Amino acid sequence: MPPVTDYVCWVGNFGELKKAVLSMEYDRAHCTRRCAGTGRELRAGETFYSVLVVDGPNLVRHDYSIEAWESPPEKAVGWWKSQLPPRDGVQVHWAPNDVMLDLLQQLADDPLRVDMRYVLALLLVRRRVCRLEETERDQDGQEKMVLFCPRREQQYRVNIAMPDDAHIKQIQEDLARLLFAA
What we know:
By secondary structure, this protein is an alpha+beta fold. The chain has 4 helices and 9 strands; from the N terminus they run E-H-E-E-E-E-H-H-E-E-E-H-E. The chain folds into 2 domains: 7-83, no CATH class; 93-181, no CATH class. It has helices spanning 14-23, 97-107, 114-126, 165-179, and strands at 7-10, 47-55, 58-65, 76-83, 93-94, 131-137, 143-149, 154-159, 180-181. A hairpin with a 4-residue loop joins strand 7 and strand 8. 20% of the residues are buried.
């Protein structure tokens, strides 16, 4: 079972994120395999950071080696950590979107895995299975993302619960076990 090597961390506030994402048309940018900071080619298996930044009307992706990464730029919309796969390696495939949506629904009833549900929700937005409609606060002050899935014509309310660094590795392993197939 391959490890999940991507996780997403959104910086700034969600109002800015929603405005940036909804107002821009952009193609999903793939890894350039080149460090934006040093110009060095990234090697297979190497861990690196990717960041999306607003550049006028566009979202632009930049990839950075571990050595060149300092922190997300001020105008970053989001960033994540990845591991570069081999060019001719075994393709890893996600579970079907319906399976991922079912898991998102199941996790709604598990208060111990709120952060895992949040990471999965971000993944579904990133894959354009769901779209971020808005953020809101419930009566307890908990901030939530409101997602809409056109496929199911359903809304999902997901607590914004960024996992701490120690828990990210466990979430990666759990999602890999549940959602990846070689």
